[in-house]
Design brief:
Largest sheet: none
Number of domains: 1
Shape: elongated
Distance between the termini: 16 Å
Number of helices: 9
Number of strands: 0
Oligomer: single chain
Helix content: 40-55%
Strand content: under 5%
Order of helices and strands: HHHHHHHHH
Bound molecules: heme C
Radius of gyration: 20 Å
Length: about 190
């Protein structure tokens, strides 16, 4: 590979990042507030009733709904048709009004406009499948989701908006005693 091209490319890349960081500095407070318990979802979807293993909890696998986590960059959010598969029958004992709204979205052909909770900046790249195939559990990065009701904020275990979190884990040795994942800039920024 051409070394000058590489160095030139890296310099302009860092300049571009500096620009990004500057722009983010202006809007950062709003984004943090959004992640700090203020999230209001269009349907009050309780994770524990679906993914928990307690009495009267459905004990569903995370990847039943987040179907692409092991083969794609995104974990994926299930379409309304997969909710409707159960909820045209299951009415909901405590909150039937929320369940009825699933039917309204389904019938109108609209997708449910879920508010995104976990997000890193566009200049960084996070591939779910590499992490799932390396044997990591969802809970290591998102907390004990199967015990949570409606998600209104990020779990404190998530450090994704802080590059040190990613790099610290990548530096950990694997069973052979070598660093378990790359810390090259270009692996996460491109
Ligand atoms: C019945 C389907 C279903 C199951 C099972 C399920 N989820 Fe979800 N999950 C959803 C839906 C719908 C959303 C979007 C609404 C929300 O954020 O609560 C979501 C949101 C999330 C988010 C936040 C995504 C974002 O916006 O950034 C995470 C993280 C998550 N789920 C992890 C898990 C984990 C871990 C499990 C297993 C313990 C799990 N989910 C099981 C349907 C499901
Ligand atoms: C495999 C079947 C299944 C799927 C798929 C499923 N659910 Fe559920 N859901 C249940 C069961 C079972 C309950 C518990 C019902 C109860 O306790 O009355 C429930 C409960 C709920 C509740 C709370 C109802 C209450 O009365 O407290 C909401 C809201 C809900 N689901 C929304 C969704 C949404 C949105 C999706 C799609 C992302 C979805 N569900 C997918 C089976 C399912
Ligand atoms: C090593 C940490 C890590 C693990 C393990 C992990 N996630 Fe994530 N997850 C993230 C990060 C970081 C983001 C934000 C990615 C972005 O903005 O591009 C995210 C975003 C998400 C989202 C938002 C929307 C999407 O489609 O990506 C969902 C849903 C989600 N994760 C579910 C899961 C589930 C389910 C598992 C387990 C099967 C899991 N995650 C495992 C770190 C992780
Ligand atoms: C393992 C993944 C990973 C590696 C390796 C990595 N970064 Fe990052 N970097 C990130 C993430 C994630 C963010 C934060 C994104 C956000 O704000 O959500 C980030 C943020 C940044 C920022 C913006 C300022 C800041 O701190 O938020 C700069 C500049 C940056 N990285 C440069 C670099 C350089 C230079 C290297 C190589 C020495 C590097 N990164 C290696 C993941 C990585
Ligand atoms: C808890 C540990 C852990 C955390 C946290 C983590 N990673 Fe990783 N990551 C891994 C492991 C292990 C691999 C190696 C998978 C393999 O060998 O295929 C990996 C692989 C990757 C790869 C593919 C590397 C390659 O060589 O192609 C990227 C890109 C990546 N991670 C980005 C991120 C970013 C961005 C973050 C933070 C938002 C992050 N990771 C947080 C453990 C982690």
């Amino acid at each position: 590979m051409n070394r000058n091209w590489l160095i030139g490319g890296l310099a302009s890349f860092l300049l571009a990042l500096a620009g990004v960081a500057f722009v983010q500095g202006g809007g950062g407070e709003g984004a943090a507030a959004e992640a700090g318990g203020d999230i209001v979802q269009p349907i009050q979807f309780p994770h524990n009733l679906h993914a928990g293993s307690g009495p009267e909890q459905a004990n569903m696998d995370c990847m039943f709904c987040h179907f692409s986590a092991e083969r794609s960059v995104d974990a994926g959010i299930p379409p309304v048709s997969s909710c409707w598969g159960c909820h045209q029958v299951v009415q909901g004992r405590n909150n039937p009004a929320e369940v009825a709204r699933i039917g309204e979205y389904y019938q109108s052909g609209e997708s449910i406009p879920w508010v995104r909770i976990y997000k890193i900046a566009d200049h960084a790249h996070f591939p779910h499948m590499r992490h799932i195939n390396a044997g990591l559990q969802c809970q290591e990065c998102h907390g004990e989701v199967q015990e949570m009701g409606v998600l209104t904020e990020r779990s404190p275990v998530w450090g994704g908006a802080n590059m040190g979190w990613c790099v610290d884990c990548h530096r950990q040795p694997d069973e052979q005693g070598v660093q378990q994942a790359s810390t090259d800039c270009a692996v996460c920024h491109y």
